[in-house]
Amino acid sequence: MVVLRIRNVHKRKYALIFLCIVGFIIYKYLSTPAKRWRMSRKVGLSANTSQFTLEGEPFCILGGSIHYFRVPRAYWRDRLMKMKACGINTLTTHVPWSLHQPERGVFNFNTQLDLEAYISLAAELELWVILRPGPYISAELDLGGLPSWLLRDHSMRLRTTHPSFTQAVNVYFDKLIPKLVPLQFKKGGPIIAVQVENEYGSFAKDQSYMLFIKEALQSRGISELLITSDIHNTLKSGGIPGAIRSVKLQKLNQRDIQELMAIQPNSPSLVMEYWTGAFDVWGDLHHVLPPEDMVSTVREIVRRGMSVNLYMFHGGSSFGFMSGALASPSYRALVPSYDYDAPLSEAGDYTPKYHLLRDLLSRYNTREDSFPDMPALRYREAYEPAIVYQHLSLWDALSFTEGPFKSPRPVNMENLPSNNGNGQSYGYTLYETTITRGGKLKSGDNVRDRALVFVDRTYIGLFKHQKLELAVPDGKAPRTLSLLVENCGRVHRGRDLDKQHKGLVGDILLNDVPLREFSIYSLDMKPSFIDSLYQAPWKSLPENPTFPGFFMGRLFAYGYPSDTFVKLPGWAKGVVFINGLNLGRYWSIGPQQALYLPGAFLNSGINQVIVFEEQEGDYKVHFEDTPDLGMAAEIQ
After folding, report:
1. Are strands 53-54 and 57-58 parallel, antiparallel or unpaired?
2. How far is Cα of residue 417 from the mean position of the Cα atoms in its chain?
3. The pLDDT value given to residue 39
4. For the residues 564-574, what does the mean pLDDT come to?
5. How confident is the model at residue 222 (pLDDT cuts 50, 70, 90)?
């Protein structure tokens, strides 16, 4: 303790001025989520009246969703500052179980997945946080963010109180929730609310399940306001006592609001997901929502005194094999871009939606410090093309994969003994067996999701995610039949999540006789596998390289690397790796025609570019300074 002994009036005057300045600084320091850090608070976000209150004062949630796992960590601050500059006061994010626990007993909360650092950054930037920890989150992720190793148990019933599922959830929550407890509002952190699961009303297979998840959160120390979130016609079945219901929508329908208010009268109304756009699927168009439609709906929501969260405010990218898929009306896989036609583009650019939204929210926000200046945009570069100069055939790369695993029958990806007995989550799996005759090859709908078929490494045709036949050429000598099967993405929503096994999920018939005695190679394309390929027997690019194959080139980025977009005209379908990092799939059918490459992924100088191509290539990888998400169509 410091004691000031003030001997005269002048010194007293200066001391009082000094203490006033210190007091003002302390007041300012303690008046925001970042600056009241670790200060204990008694009253958090409350929904006991028709309007939310925070610390007893009226509070309107003006939220925006940005997923930390879809944004390079080096860009977290940039994206959150741009969101705050738009007038948003609350960050929402899902938490993907599949990324945080890739194998049983293996957890990752580091670097790109450092959730605590992300939440702390939000607090530093004076943003409140609504956390959506799942365990199921949808978010257009493979299997809705659930880890694929759960499917090794063929009796598994996901999103229920099936003992195998609840045991796995408990192990995961034992690791996750203690990291979040100190970051809650009443403990001085920025987390003002936590969502219980996600969209359970449209699943609703087990009446006890939501109670189990609620108890799993609260028993581990979650004490802030709980929220459930569903589309309008499933609000009743998705709710739970002790949690406020919220709705998801894109068009404001009076019936939806009346339904919400009827279910929970005298409670605040929250649109937990106002969809600012939509995701895209391969073989379709790029979906957009006109800016005027978006801002008019948000204006009406706020005018009614409702709270709102924009999903997405900034979508980012589903790097690697993160993307999910749709099951209905037919199987369709999602593209890597999660631009979502959001107010902030995939590369962090301001859009017309952003400017209209900022103008709107400035009228409803009276805090002087709510609208900092808009951060400057990052420079983008159209780099010189990377000329492919080396080639490695798929067959020459097999010695660097996990396998071969011998099996009398086909084994699906998840039940392979790879990855320390956790099975294969993503990528490709190669199945090989010996045949002694030709004839009709039938998939029986057992290929998930696409298979390139070869006889003695010569391509003969393609199986898709449906029942098809192929003609196998005649031949009497023993020959090798190979099926390179790709997991294009597990369905991210629906009532059949338990059935999302990939690879060969049943027998393949040759002349109606099941094939047997397989050698199986796991090609999950993890960074460790790509790194190992540098030791492989690469060859100078021949005039007629074999496919499938790996193609290597170099990108030169002098000085401080800038963002760019990878474009592959003349290539058919495959995956792009930059410095060993999986950017995602490309496919000539579109709509997406360019992959976002953050400058944060590049080195100053030489960068290694590897393309895995299935069928044909142009042998140049182009880098452009503008995105290309394909031909656009308005959302109806």
Report:
1. antiparallel
2. 26
3. 59
4. 98
5. very high
Tokens of 371: 């609208």
Structure tokens at 135: 């365990």
Sign of the dihedral defined by the CA atoms of residues 18, 20, 25, 30, in that order = positive
DSSP, res 285: P
d(CA 161, CA 171) in angstroms, rounded, equals 14
Q: Which helix (H) or strand (E) holds 234?
A: none
Nearest to 617 by CA among 371, 438, 392, 422: 392
**Residue 20 pLDDT level (bands cut at 50, 70, 90):** very low
Among 1-15, 112-126, 368-382, 407-421, where is mean pLDDT lowest?
Answer: 1-15
Per-residue 3-state assignment (H helix, E strand, C coil) for 561-589? CCEEEEECCCCCEEEEEECCEEEEEEECC
Element (H, E) at 548: none
The token duo for 105 is: 């007993």
**Would you say residue 1 has pLDDT above 80?**
no
- Determine how many CB atoms are found less than 10 A away from the CB of residue 164: 15
Asked if residue 463 lies in contact with residue 357, where contact means CB atoms within 8 angstroms, the answer is no
User: What domains are there in the chain, each with its CATH number?
Assistant: 31-369 (3.20.20.80), 394-523 (2.60.120.260), 541-634 (2.60.120.260)
SS3 state of residue 20? helix
- pLDDT of amino acid 369: 59
- Contact call for residues 574 and 614 (beta carbons, < 8 A): yes
Residue 467: the pLDDT is 72
Identify the three-state secondary structure at position 368: helix
- CA distance linking residue 188 with residue 168, whole number of Å: 30
Question: Tens digit of pLDDT for each residue in 242-288?
Answer: 999 999 999 998 888 888 999 999 899 999 999 999 999 999 999 99
Asked if residues 154 and 115 have their Cβ atoms less than 8 Å apart, the reply is no
Tell me what pLDDT residue 10 has: 45
Pairing of strands 225-231, 244-249: parallel
Sign of CA dihedral 567, 320, 349, 326: positive
Distance CA 36, CA 26 (A): 10
State the CB neighbour count (10 A cutoff) for residue 622: 18
Backbone torsions φ then ψ of 326, nearest 5 degrees:
-105, 145
Question: In the predicted model, is pLDDT for residue 3 greater than 50?
Answer: no
How many angstroms from the chain centroid is the CA of residue 98? 10
Catalytic site residue from 126, 197, 273, 414: 273
26 Cβ contact list (under 8 Å, min separation 6): none
Structure tokens at 621: 């990888």
Catalytic member of 197, 199, 486, 614: 199
Q: How many separate helices (H) and strands (E) can be counted in the chain?
A: 13, 37
pLDDT higher than 60, residue 5: no
| Strand ranges (E), 73-171 | 90-94, 128-132
Question: Which positions ≥6 away from 208 have C-beta within 8 Å?
Answer: 161
Q: Show the beta-strand stretches assigned E in 5-85.
A: 45-46, 53-54, 57-58, 62-66
Position 233 scores a pLDDT of 87
Q: Please tell me whether residue 159 adopts helix, strand or coil conformation.
A: coil
Task: Report the 10 Å Cβ neighbour count for 298.
Answer: 23
β-strand partners of 249: 274
Q: Are strands 509-510 and 439-442 parallel, antiparallel or unpaired?
A: antiparallel
Spatial contact of 536 and 404, defined as CB atoms under 8 Å apart: no
| Residues 119 and 66 sit within 8 Å (Cβ to Cβ) | no
Known active-site residue 273: yes
Mean pLDDT in the chain? 93
Instruction: List, for residues 128-143, the tens digit of each pLDDT value.
Output: 999 999 999 999 999 9
**How far lies 370's CA from each of 271, 355, 357, in Å?**
21, 15, 14
